[in-house]
Amino acid sequence: MPMRLVILSDTHIPRRARDLPEQVWRAVDGADVVIHAGDWCDLASLEALDERARRLIAVHGNNDGPQLRERLPEVARATLDGVRLAVVHETGQARGRDERCAARFPDADVLVFGHSHIPWDSTASTGLRLLNPGSPTDRRRQPQHTYMTAVVESGALTGVELHPVRPEPSSSGTPPR
């Protein structure tokens, strides 16, 4: 059976948003595995996602304090239906990232990372797939808030998709500006 993934990073709650957008929560509810590449900013957001996700694979980021660092590793690893996954928050500058990460994570098929808030999907010469979902709550200079989904099936990562977070209607029924 296919394994559905939701890939998140840089949620920055409550600094940049009070909660994850409802669109992201719906994706989490439909996922088999949720991956979060750090910069949660509060323990409550980790606990909420951990409670709602069927399985959570997560790391801490540079904006995460002692409570999150006690609960989460700097690097997480998991094998999902034969796909060797590594998760880390920071990977350094964009120039040379693919090969630098391939050398750092030679035993991984997929590396999920965050920090830049810039969506990224590339493949190193070794075959390592690098994914950064951007941020669903803090787009910085990006045109939109984003997250990713993917599927693992028969030992392969497929269907990687970057999703824009769509504005939610306000309680008055009028979309926010």
From TrEMBL:
UniProt keyword Metal-binding present: yes
Gene3D superfamilies referenced in this protein's UniProt entry, alphabetically: 3.60.21.10
Keywords: Metal-binding
MF GO annotations: hydrolase activity; metal ion binding
Organism: Spinactinospora alkalitolerans
InterPro entries reported in the protein's UniProt record: Calcineurin-like_PHP_lpxH, Metallo-depent_PP-like, Phosphodiesterase_MJ0936/Vps29
Residues in Calcineurin-like phosphoesterase domain copies: 3-154
Entry protein name: Phosphoesterase
EC number: 3.1.4.-
